[in-house]
Specification:
Length: 265
């Protein structure tokens, strides 16, 4: 056989092995993702966090559960997915984006809109609902967000009742959406740290603020969970998978490995 044949055969073998390696790596990641997704309480065996730190991370436990993320470490366990989650879903591609997004959630978030969305939700006349937003929203962006949140809440209210997230309209006001804002900050701080957009010290500063926010407004892990689900429902409407989120919350509230069971509010 010619020298050229051996060269071409070697190239073919190299390309084939490279393809199989990449395919195998992708398959491994997919299997890892599927396995993690079925673990509502995914524990990092290498974690050495003190209970006080673990308790602060637990503010984001429901977000962590939906992504198959570790519950007990800054490390998420899904580092291979973070570029998509942060870049495509959150628009976070650098340190400035990270800080701006988390500061926004802590200083404004869904909490800014909720009192007016709640007020409009109690009204049956669309014109009166619009008057509420026209009166209080200070920009077109804020107006559009408030309208969208109201529509999503109206669309999912019966579903929230059916899944026993709430038992009445009054429960919406009692729980609010603080859990939704605080839970997302907690996850973003971890993810942005793992992507080296912020330091671990900064991550804990954001987690501390999220923890303080949740504990100022809510009275228990249960209330945190319901508040998170309500906020998510107002964010995504029928696409929020409220029944799945409620099931995850119930497991976090009952599984002996869960931080919500192991650690007092």
């Amino acid at each position: 056989m010619s020298y050229e044949f051996y060269i071409m055969s070697g190239i073919a073998v190299f390309v084939g092995c490279t393809w199989l390696y990449r395919k195998g790596k992708g398959a491994y990641m997919m299997v890892r993702k599927i396995r993690s997704a079925f673990k509502v309480v995914n524990i990092n065996p290498a974690s050495s966090l003190a209970d006080e730190q673990y308790k602060k991370l637990a503010v984001g436990a429901l977000y962590a559960s939906q992504q198959g993320v570790y519950q007990n470490s800054i490390k998420t366990g899904i580092d291979y997915e973070l570029p998509q989650i942060l870049g495509e879903w959150w628009g976070i591609k650098n340190s400035q984006d990270a800080r701006e997004k988390m500061d926004y959630l802590l200083e404004k978030g869904f909490r800014y809109y909720f009192p007016y969305v709640w007020q409009a939700f109690l009204l049956s006349d669309p014109k009166q609902q619009d008057e509420v937003f026209q009166q209080y929203m200070e920009s077109q962006e804020d107006y559009d967000k408030a309208v969208s949140q109201l529509q999503n809440l109206e669309e999912t209210y019966d579903e929230l009742l059916e899944n026993k997230v709430i038992s009445s309209k009054e429960d919406l006001k009692r729980y609010g959406v603080v859990g939704w804002d605080a839970g997302r900050v907690c996850f973003l701080a971890r993810a942005c740290c793992e992507m080296c957009y912020i330091t671990e010290e900064e991550a804990w500063q954001y987690i501390d603020r999220a923890y303080d926010l949740a504990h100022r407004e809510l009275a228990s892990w249960h209330d945190l969970a319901m508040s998170y689900i309500i906020g998510r429902s107002m964010w995504g409407g029928k696409k929020s998978y409220n029944s799945v989120m409620k099931d995850n919350a119930d497991k976090l509230l009952s599984d002996e490995k869960s931080p919500w069971v192991r650690l007092q509010w």
